[in-house]
Specification:
Lysozyme; alpha+beta; 9 strands; 2 domains
Length: 382
């Protein structure tokens, strides 16, 4: 298999059913309209070929599929081929080629020329980067629209963009035949290997979306009130945890109350959708959660990579906590795969890369702290 075949090509080698181009009605487009507000692409963070072709991607999506953010095109192609236009992976269906790793049947259905050989010859249009995007983006868009219509009609919780990813990696029948739109083992003809491939593929694309997003950085908090200083005494887990846990240290409870004062109480209409503080965290005996010294704040649904306004809301909270770290006795913050403490020098804009400490998967939405801001607070005498 070609080095750059990527996660998508590996999946195609196992899931042998071809990806079917589904011709969708346009009625489902309203379901994805709100999902396009994912912010722009940070051109300094994407592969060189993606940077070169970003104007083409923007023009193609604007003309043919405005509900597909260019950011997601860049991320999915990176997951599929690592932005190698000559990438090829062989399997018993004839293999998959090009930036989006399409098999020959799908490439022809998208309007491309048959390959005539496996792997395709060097002059095959499937290996031409611009031609590939010109045909593949509308092909992928058809799956996005089909997924949007189905998910809206059935009220399944999966987003249309995630439905598009499932269609691409495993076939749209996995969306329609599963309870949520993302198959688990035993659903829609998907065994454990199939379900794991789908989950890993979604996680990989989400991670790349977060990595390439132009919104991935601190934002202004000048409009938010400054917190009042903590002036309590040193004590261990004696304050009530308003999120339902056993207890909090006074400094942690004070910081939580100040967050609520600045951002409002957690809830579906709040910049902070939910919060969780004390937790036993049996798998991590060094966790500050089990000491009542930490809280997690989710700007969107747990387990989901936040985008658009939700991503901005998370950055607002992280920036506010960092700005007022001394006042709130902040020990450290983890957010968007980055770790920051008052003693941590910045690298690439904000803190340093978070590795997971050998306990957490740093590329997972929750393990990498992409879906929540983790805030730990010092034990202090006031």
């Amino acid at each position: 298999m070609n080095r750059a075949a990527g996660a998508g090509a590996a999946a195609l080698a196992v899931i042998t059913a071809p990806i079917v181009l589904v011709v969708a009605l346009l009625g489902g487009l309203s379901a994805v309209a709100a999902e396009t507000a994912t912010g722009g692409v940070d051109a300094t963070k994407i592969p060189p070929l993606a940077r070169e072709l970003l104007p083409d991607i923007t023009a193609i999506t604007t003309a043919t599929c405005p509900e597909l953010p260019p950011l997601w095109v860049v991320a999915e192609v990176a997951a599929e081929s690592s932005w190698d236009p000559t990438a090829y992976s062989s399997d018993r269906n004839g293999g998959a080629a090009g930036l989006y790793q399409l098999n020959e049947a799908n490439w022809v259905a998208a309007g491309g020329a048959p390959w005539g050989a496996s792997p395709p010859p060097a002059d095959a249009d499937v290996l031409d980067a611009r031609r590939h995007l010109e045909l593949a983006i509308p092909f992928v868009c058809a799956n996005l629209r089909a997924a949007a219509e189905h998910l809206q009609a059935t009220e399944k919780p999966t987003s249309a963009l995630d439905g598009m990813l499932v269609c691409h990696i495993a076939g749209c029948s996995r969306v329609t035949g599963s309870a949520t739109g993302i198959p688990v083992p035993g659903e829609a003809g998907c065994d454990r290997t199939c379900a794991d491939l789908v989950t890993n593929y979604l996680d990989r694309v989400h991670s790349l979306v977060a990595q390439y997003s132009a919104n991935a950085g601190p934002v202004s908090v000048d409009d938010l009130p400054a917190p009042t200083p903590f002036d309590g005494v040193n004590a261990l887990c004696t304050a009530v945890d308003p999120t339902g846990g056993r207890c909090l240290t006074p400094a942690t409870r004070h910081a939580h109350d100040e967050i609520v004062r600045a951002f409002g109480p957690p809830g579906p209409e709040s910049p902070i959708r939910s919060a969780a503080c004390w937790d036993e965290h049996a798998w991590n005996p060094d966790s500050d959660h089990s000491r009542g010294q930490a809280c997690d704040y989710f700007p969107d649904t747990a387990g989901r990579f936040p985008e658009g306004q939700e991503l901005q809301n998370g950055w607002r909270l992280a920036t506010w906590l960092r700005t007022h770290a001394a006042t709130l006795k902040v020990k450290y913050l983890i957010w968007q795969g980055r770790f920051w403490s008052p003693d941590t020098p910045d690298a690439d804009g904000w803190g340093r890369p978070y590795t997971g400490g050998g306990i957490y998967d740093a590329e997972d939405a929750t393990g990498g702290h992409f879906d929540h801001v983790h805030a730990s607070f010092e034990i202090t005498d006031g």
